[in-house]
Design a protein that fits this description.
Elements (H helix, E strand, L loop, with lengths): L16 H13 L10 H8 L17 H4 L9 E4 L2 E4 L33 E5 L13 E4 H5 L4 E8 L6 H5 L15 E10 H8 L7 E6 L5 E2 L2 E2 L7 E2 H6 L2 E6 L2 E2 L9 E3 L12 E7 L33 E4 L5 E3 L5 E8 L5 E7 L7 E2 L1 E2 L9 E7 L5 E11 L24 E5 L1
Parallel strand pairs: 3-14, 16-23
Antiparallel strand pairs: 1-2, 3-4, 5-6, 6-11, 7-10, 7-14, 8-9, 11-12, 11-13, 15-17, 17-21, 18-19, 18-22, 20-21, 22-23
The structure holds ligand MTE and molybdenum atom (MO).
The site of the ligand Nc1nc2c(c(=O)[nH]1)N[C@H]1C(S)=C(S)[C@@H](COP(=O)(O)O)O[C@H]1N2 has 18 residues, from loops.
Amino acid sequence: MPASPVPSPRPATRVDETAYDRRRLRQWLAGDARADGVSRRRLLTLLAATAAATALPAPGPARAADTSIVKPLPPEWFIQRGTNAETRWEALRGTGHHTPNELFFVRNHTTTPVLDAQDWRLRLWGSGLRGAPGEDRPVEFGYDDLRALPAVTRTAFVECAGNGRSHYTTQQGETVTGTPWTLGAIGVARWRGVRLADVLRRAGLSPYAVDVQPRGLDAEYVSGGESLGRVRRPLPLAKALDDVLLAYEMNGEPLPYDHGHPVRVLVPSWVGIASIKWVGDIEVSAQPLFSPWNTTFYRLFGPSHPPQGSAPLTRQTIKSAFELASGATFPVGEGQVLHGRSWSGAGGIARVEVSTDGGTSWRPARLHDRPRADTWNRWSIPWKPETPGTTHLLARATDTAGHRQPDVAVPNTQGYLFDAVVRHPVTVV
Ligand SMILES: Nc1nc2c(c(=O)[nH]1)N[C@H]1C(S)=C(S)[C@@H](COP(=O)(O)O)O[C@H]1N2
Ligand SMILES: [Mo]
């Protein structure tokens, strides 16, 4: 690992992907941006502010679920969905603030690769690294090299952009593509690793770098019969230098195979796809970069959005969930305490209101955690069901940035960023 002089850090500017994306697209048009694996047509569509929204390709056939994930998936903890496993919310009852590794949801585009930390190398390369003009100067780090750098620990959620997607259909009658998650495509862990900023500076970051693109070592992703290459998504440099980690521990254990062993990227507050697992290389580019994961996927398309789609998704939205099975039953006349959690990508959770009568009246829940960015807040509320029959429990959170969960989420064709209050069915017997 070369010890190059450390360039002065850039100020961690607020990341405005909308404005930057427009710039990035203009640069592509001018021949100044690379877009491997993204068709010219797709980019032109994104550029054409007046073009009609294009039809999205259907997701590829799912692989056999039992070959894609290494850890056990007991049915009382997980709902298997193709190559993915959703955590059951009732299984989180009684777990602490952090989701145990065994219970953490898994989102795999293909299959968990079983990698050995001692054979693993991280390669940094590209036009955004310093070196003589035109010189391709990749820099490599081994697992022990990363372990020798200053370590940082932080609590953060990883949440799929499509978490809650099925509620677009069940509550709003909309047809959306993608894995029909309920609310269990989220987990919170204590991650330990090194700052991506430290690794980039040691690699010799050039003042001209603009995008950083980590890529996974899992197999190429095939969608609609076409290989889109290995999972990768560009991050603007400002975010990469701000709070992104290269994590090698999860809740005090070496990163489990399914969660990116030996090293994954952890991008706090952003949609899960940014947190590339099994990272093998990072392109550091002086030109803007595109991949299918910031063009075709992970933008908002549909009648409520710009014809060319929204800017690439960044922060997660706001949600709440009860630590209860769907259709849970309660004995009439018996005092209960309902438990749940709320979280937001825009800040901590300031307030949670609960309705036990289908949304007619609301009471404040007791918060169990201090409002903290990038993680959830546990809450509880007493309830004594008085009338037998079916009803809905609802929880509505407000975050420290002032966002409150709406009654209806603005739809998009791929069902991302569901934020509306979820109606949780229960039966009183
Ligand atoms: N290399 C690689 N990284 C990846 C993925 C993947 O399939 N391959 N899935 C992404 C998506 S869509 C999500 S939501 C998160 C899920 O992280 P987890 O499986 O550790 O819960 O990982 C992201 N990183
Ligand atoms: Mo995801």
